Amino acid sequence: MEIFELDGHEYIELNNLLKTTGLSESGGRAKVVIAEGQVKVDGEVELRKRCKIRTGQVVEYQGQQVTVQ
């Protein structure tokens, strides 16, 4: 499980989180995999590309998890 630090920000958009953490090779690819229902937030499929991910949430994609702090 990877930890992502928000560094003083309130949230990060889901597509940007996937790109920033390297789970997706690009922002465009991140949007596609989200739209296809391949990404889960806190165990539930999330289809909103710009969903605000906040401290304490867990994002899962292709068997990898990222916890936001």
Question: Main traits of this protein?
Answer:
69 residues, alpha+beta, Structural Genomics Hypothetical 15.5 Kd Protein In mrcA-pckA Intergenic Region, Chain A, five-stranded mixed sheet, two-stranded antiparallel sheet, globular
Proportion of strand residues: 25-35%
Low-confidence stretches: none
Largest β sheet strand count, sense and barrel closure: 5 strands, mixed
Calculate the terminal CA-CA distance, rounded to whole Å.
Answer: 13 Å
Number of domains: 1
General form: globular
Rg over C-alpha atoms, rounded to the nearest angstrom: 10 Å
Major sheet: arrangement of strands:
1-7-6-3-4
By CATH, the topology is Structural Genomics Hypothetical 15.5 Kd Protein In mrcA-pckA Intergenic Region, Chain A
Describe the structure.
By secondary structure, the chain is α+β, with helices and mostly antiparallel strands. 23% of the residues are buried. The chain has a single domain (2-68), classed as RNA-binding S4 domain (Structural Genomics Hypothetical 15.5 Kd Protein In mrcA-pckA Intergenic Region, Chain A, Roll). It is built from 2 helices and 7 strands. The mean pLDDT is 96. It has helices spanning 14-21, 27-35; strands at residues 2-4, 12-13, 39-41, 44-45, 52-53, 58-61, 64-68. The strands form 2 sheets. Strands 1-7-6-3-4 form a 5-stranded mixed sheet, with helices on one face. A two-stranded antiparallel sheet has the order 2-5.
